[in-house]
Specification:
- By secondary structure, the chain is of the alpha/beta class.
- The protein has a single domain, classed as 3-Layer(aba) Sandwich (Rossmann fold), CATH 3.40.50.150.
- The strands form two sheets. A seven-stranded mixed beta sheet has the order 5-4-3-6-7-9-8, sandwiched between helices. The chain has a two-stranded antiparallel sheet with strand order 1-2.
- A hairpin with a 2-residue loop joins β1 and β2.
- The radius of gyration is 17 Å and the shape is globular.
- The termini are far apart.
- It comes from Dokdonella soli.
- InterPro entries: Methyltransf_16, SAM-dependent_MTases_sf.
C-alpha cells in the first residue's frame, strides 16, 4: 500500500480532455523512508505536488496554443505535469522536472492514462547545479515564486539552463514575489510582458492570475556578468 489516497480528475485543456490521477486531498502524507524530508520537503508541503492548482491549469492552457516549433522546453516544479502532458500531446521536445520523489511516477502514470508516450523527466533541485540537464529555448513553471528566496534561486537556475535567445513563461497567482524575479531576469537581458488572467470561474477583473512572458534575444552574452551563455 502506498500510504496515501488518490482520485482521478477530468480536466479539459485546449481541445482535449485529460484524465489526471491526483492526491485525493491536501491531508495526504507518506514518507516512510524519509526521502522527502531529506530533500527538504516538510509534511505540510508533501501533498502540494499532487494537487491540480489553478496556476497549473492556466499554464497548461497557455501551452495548448503556445508557439513551440523548434524549441527545447523545460517545465520546472512540474507537480502532476499538466503543462508537460499538453506539450507531449503536441509533439514538443519537453523535459519535466521537480524535486518531489513522487512527481516522476505520477507523471508517468498520467501519461499512460492519456495514451501518451512517457514524458522525459529529471529530478531537479533549484539550488544544485545539474550540468547534464543542458540548456533550453523555453522554460515554463506555474506558481513557483511562492517563497521570497525563490526569485534568486530560479534566476540562477535559468542562467545555467537557458540559451542566449530564450523565453520564460511563468503563471503566478499574485503572491507578490514576481517583482524581484523580474528584476533578476532584467539583469540577464530579459524583457517581460504581463497578461492578467482569471484563476477560476469566480475570478473577476482585475484578475488575480499573472501570465509573465520573459524574452531574451542577445548575441550569446549575458548582460548580468558578460559571460557567454
Amino acid at each position: 500500500m502506498p500510504g496515501y489516497d488518490t482520485r482521478q480528475h477530468l480536466v479539459h485543456l485546449g481541445d482535449h480532455d485529460y484524465r489526471i490521477r491526483a492526491l485525493s486531498d491536501r491531508q495526504q502524507f507518506a514518507d516512510p523512508d524519509g526521502h522527502a524530508e531529506r530533500l527538504g520537503i516538510s509534511s505540510a508541503q508533501w501533498c502540494l505536488f499532487g494537487q491540480i492548482w489553478p496556476a497549473g491549469r492556466l499554464l497548461a492552457e497557455a501551452m495548448s496554443h503556445f508557439d513551440i516549433a523548434g524549441k527545447r522546453i523545460l517545465e520546472i516544479g512540474c507537480g502532476l505535469g499538466l503543462a508537460s502532458l499538453v506539450l507531449q500531446r503536441r509533439g514538443a521536445d519537453v523535459v519535466a522536472s521537480d524535486v518531489h520523489p513522487l512527481a516522476e511516477p505520477f507523471l508517468a502514470y498520467n501519461a499512460a492514462l492519456n495514451a501518451l508516450p512517457a514524458v522525459a523527466y529529471r529530478q531537479l533541485r533549484w539550488d544544485m547545479p545539474l550540468p547534464a540537464l543542458g540548456r533550453f529555448d523555453l522554460v515554463i513553471g506555474s506558481d513557483i515564486l511562492y517563497e521570497r528566496d525563490h526569485a534568486a534561486l530560479l534566476a540562477a537556475l535559468l542562467q545555467r539552463h537557458t540559451y542566449a535567445r530564450s523565453e520564460v513563461l511563468i503563471t503566478d497567482p499574485g503572491r507578490g514575489n514576481s517583482a524581484p524575479f523580474t528584476r533578476a531576469l532584467a539583469a540577464q537581458g530579459y524583457s517581460v510582458t504581463e497578461e492578467r488572467s482569471a484563476m477560476d470561474a469566480g475570478d473577476k477583473p482585475p484578475y488575480r492570475g499573472h501570465l509573465l512572458h520573459y524574452r531574451r534575444d542577445i548575441n550569446g552574452t549575458s548582460t548580468a556578468n558578460g559571460n557567454a551563455l
